[in-house]
Amino acid sequence: MSWLVTGGAGFIGSALCHYLAEATDDRIVVIDKLTYAGNRQSLSSLEMDGRLELIEADITDFPMMAEIVEKSAPRSIFHLAAETHVDRSID
Ligand SMILES: NC(=O)c1ccc[n+]([C@@H]2O[C@H](COP(=O)([O-])OP(=O)(O)OC[C@H]3O[C@@H](n4cnc5c(N)ncnc54)[C@H](O)[C@@H]3O)[C@@H](O)[C@H]2O)c1
User: Fold this and answer.
1) Is the CB of 24 under 6 A from ligand 1?
2) Which of 24, 31, 54, 90 is the most exposed place for a label (fewest CB within 10 A)?
3) From CA 78, how far away is CA 52, in angstroms rounded?
4) How much is the pLDDT for 84?
5) What is the Å distance from ligand 1's center to 13 Cα?
6) Ligand 1 atom 30: the closest Cα is on which residue?
7) Which residues of the chain are modeled with pLDDT < 70?
8) What is the per-residue pLDDT for 86?
9) DSSP β-ladder status, 76-79 and 2-6
10) Domain boundaries, position 19
11) Tens digit of pLDDT for each residue in 53-79?
12) Alpha carbon of 72 to ligand 1 centroid (Å)
């Protein structure tokens, strides 16, 4: 079983990934573009344990998203990728 988390290298997403790793035995697949807001370091312990796979990708890349969803067959998708800086999100 796996969980798919978009924006998993962000503030909320990384906390969620650590929670999922503690609360379940499932694999965690993260899709993150690693923008200025993404921090791979926040997931490094889970990556090193082999609990989590981080895929650097943009959620607007539909064919890529379809492929990842098909391959990982997640039980659920948490969508947390976002442009959270107010000025940038308006753009
Ligand atoms: N931080 C809060 O207190 C808070 C409170 C309530 C709701 N939220 C909501 O939770 C969500 C996440 O917020 P956050 O604070 O973790 O934001 P964040 O900016 O810390 O993280 C966003 C993540 O999304 C990634 N990302 C951005 N665009 C992407 C794209 N096109 N494709 C793939 N990845 C992309 C970034 O690299 C980053 O890792 C947002 O929808 C936000 O509105 C946050």
Assistant:
1) no
2) 90
3) 14
4) 83
5) 7
6) 58
7) none
8) 75
9) parallel
10) 2-90
11) 999 999 999 999 999 999 999 999 999
12) 22
Ligand 1 atom with least separation from CA of 34: 37
Run of H or E residues at 30 = strand 27-32
Domain count, the chain: 1
H helix or E strand, kind and range, residue 19 = helix 11-23
Residue 82 alpha carbon to ligand 1 centre in Å: 4
Between CA 66 and CA 83 the distance in angstroms is: 21
**What is the pLDDT of the chain when averaged over all its residues?**
95
How far away, in angstroms, is 89 Cα from ligand 1 center? Answer: 11
* CATH assignment at residue 65: 3.40.50.720
Q: Is 39 in the pocket of ligand 1 (CB under 6 A)?
A: no
Q: What is the pLDDT of residue 60?
A: 97
